Amino acid sequence: AVCCHGSPNGPVSTTTRSMTVMPAWVIDKYGSNEALRFTKNAGFPVINYPNEVIVRVHSAGLNPLDVRMRDGYGSASLSMKRDPLNIKSSSEFPLILGRDVSGVIMECGLDVKYFREWDEVWAAIPPWKQGSLAEFVVLSANEVSHKPKSMSHREAAAVPYAASTAWSALVNTGGLSKDNCAKKRILILGGSGGVGTFAIQMLKAWGAHVTVTCSQNAELFVRGLGADHVVDYTAGPVEEPLGALEKFDLILDNVGGDTERWALTLLKPWCGAKFVTLVTPFLQNTDRLGIADGMMQNAATVATKALKHLVKGVHYRWGFFVPSGPVLDEIREMVDAGQIRTVVEDTFCFSQVPEAFEKMEKGHARGKTVVQIS
Ligand code: NDP
């Protein structure tokens, strides 16, 4: 996609306090791409807590979650998170999508110590907050991090959500770190998309041996990111060629579907090996059954599966995106050290947000999709 630069509204003053509206893409109801609406009159973000900052968005990154949220995925659970006591009469609409932001701090709450106005920052925006397809966004300072100096805003906006998810799955859930990866054998199911591309690079930087499944036409792409061994899932069932390989210490599953049926047999038994899947029914359950029953269902499902696999000597876990400025600080160091590079597949301008969603909806990602806001 061709991208046009420059804000439709011209330069913004140094203080945002007098501003009440801003340009944004919003949805007023869940649905297809027709639900996306551009407005110059979206509510201007307000600092409600002293640890919050307002960021002027230069570039926004999209994720598969944005398309699913547009369709209504997670609506009940995220509404509950937005308004736990159900005291606000207003709904979540107009809702602004977009989980990744790279931009500049325009205003800081009174308790914010680590950031100042004009700092260049990046962040992954939690799904229950208003997103980055707007000129400004308000975030907690602990969700924000200084962006890597070696990246443009466009490149930086392609990183936070997918890289934080890869980090959360590998480090928090999988127990991996730069100090314990040497010689470990890791399998990434679905290595050519947003999460996979960052997972490959992190693991290679930490010294692991990385096997990846992807389409045949993505093989050179994932090898370029460091993958040691590549299995083409379009050539037939991957469990056969994968089963012929030495067993793995950790499997990161970005694919879901029937992977759980066969993938755990590929792990080394009785030595702490883990299967971490990012494709879970967590939000579907809470949407369908309500928060209390949905959480009970989630706990029962994950406990049953964990136990079933534990008796065979392997661990079964669900992985999640976790918003964290400090994790982004660590990722920034890896970027500035040349260990992680960004893979922007497509860049759209602010007027082309529906086209960006259309592209996301087609799937087959080879990296990330970015929207230039200003
Ligand atoms: P992307 O859409 O960026 O990438 C998915 C990739 O997988 C594409 O490159 C696709 O390419 C490839 N692929 C599709 N089918 C297969 C298959 N059977 N085997 C191997 N590769 C395949 O998605 P993300 O990387 O951003 O996210 C991955 C998954 O993780 C998504 O399901 C997402 O919803 C989930 N996720 C969950 C989070 C959580 O908090 N639990 C957070 C973030 C993501 P091609 O089709 O051309 O092969």
Any descriptors?
seven-stranded mixed sheet, 15 strands, 374 residues, six-stranded parallel sheet, 30% helix
Describe the structure.
The protein is of the alpha/beta class. It is built from 12 helices and 15 strands. The protein is globular. The structure holds NADPH dihydro-nicotinamide-adenine-dinucleotide phosphate (NDP). NADPH dihydro-nicotinamide-adenine-dinucleotide phosphate (NDP) binds next to helix 1, helix 4, helix 5 and strand 9. NADPH dihydro-nicotinamide-adenine-dinucleotide phosphate binds next to helix 1, helix 4, helix 5 and strand 9.
State the end-to-end distance.
16 Å
Which parts are unreliable, with pLDDT below 50 for 5 consecutive residues or more?
A: 1-14
Determine Rg (CA atoms, Å).
21 Å
Global mean pLDDT: 94
Protein topology:
Layout: E1 21-27, E2 36-43, E3 52-62, H1 64-71, H2 75-82, E4 100-108, E5 120-124, E6 136-140, E7 144-146, H3 153-156, H4 160-173, E8 185-189, H5 194-205, E9 209-214, H6 219-224, E10 229-232, H7 239-243, E11 250-253, H8 259-262, E12 274-277, H9 282-289, H10 291-310, E13 315-318, H11 325-336, E14 344-349, H12 353-362, E15 368-372
Parallel strand pairs: 8-9, 8-11, 9-10, 11-12, 12-13, 14-15
Antiparallel strand pairs: 1-2, 3-4, 3-6, 3-15, 4-5, 5-7
Helix pairs in contact: 4-5, 9-10
Bound molecules: NADPH dihydro-nicotinamide-adenine-dinucleotide phosphate (NDP).
